[in-house]
Amino acid sequence: MPARRHSALLFTQALSRTGTSQQTVVDDLRRVILDGAVPPGTPIPVSEVAEAFGVSTIPIRESLKTLTGEGLVTHQRNVGYTVAQLTAGELAEMYLVRETLESAALAAAVERATAADHAHLDEVNRLLEQAVRDDDPQTYHRQSRHFHLGLARPARMQRLLHMLESAWNVTEPVQLMVHVTRSDRALLHDDHRRMLEAFRAGDVETLLATTAEHNKRLNHVVTSLPTGNGLVVDDAGS
């Protein structure tokens, strides 16, 4: 079976098809992409997706236009829709955007965090630790997102948080934590532990310094990601 046909089937098989409203279609397509169920560059067969949902191609195309605007899907004339594939430089840029937005929220988040916010982060950190023990990179990647957004959300800065989640979504198809080495994952997790300790202690200075160290380590991982595995493309070939 040709690779393009195989990836198209993979995409349609990953859909949950729990409903047929426009919002349901958008949400399900977005979920498949953000969950890493289909890698960057995967074709999105409009007619087959429409058949899977039991709708015409019109709401599928409208949904894909929405996801294109979110940076999750790309469209090329005579090629069609595919899961967006970033260049190495674009991926590094989006991680810088994430870092900047998160750091801007942290001081306010520490000040405004409630006991429930602390409890949520404790639970996420417990799940991260379990993923490390189980050597489960998929779960670790998913919970790492919850951890970072959990640090920022207590700031209650809704516009900033929306931009942060949008930036995070753009990088999500790469599933970075799934592809880093086990030793790098352990180092990043130790950063998480120290960040949580500073957050709970209300120590903004230490939290920001530790977060900066974490992002420096993370950016090194991002720039070291091979371009030959299809996750990102070389900037020279973009």
TrEMBL record:
Pfam families: FCD (PF07729), GntR (PF00392). This is GntR family transcriptional regulator. Residues 19-86 form the HTH gntR-type domain. InterPro entries: GntR_C (IPR011711), TF_FadR/GntR_C (IPR008920), Tscrpt_reg_HTH_GntR (IPR000524), WH-like_DNA-bd_sf (IPR036388), WH_DNA-bd_sf (IPR036390). The keyword Phosphoprotein does not apply. Keywords: DNA-binding, Transcription, Transcription regulation. PROSITE patterns: HTH_GNTR. GO terms for molecular function: DNA binding; DNA-binding transcription factor activity. The lineage of its organism: Bacteria, Bacillati, Actinomycetota, Actinomycetes, Mycobacteriales. PANTHER family: TRANSCRIPTIONAL REGULATOR, GNTR FAMILY, TRANSCRIPTIONAL REGULATORY PROTEIN. It comes from Mycolicibacterium litorale. The keyword DNA-binding applies.
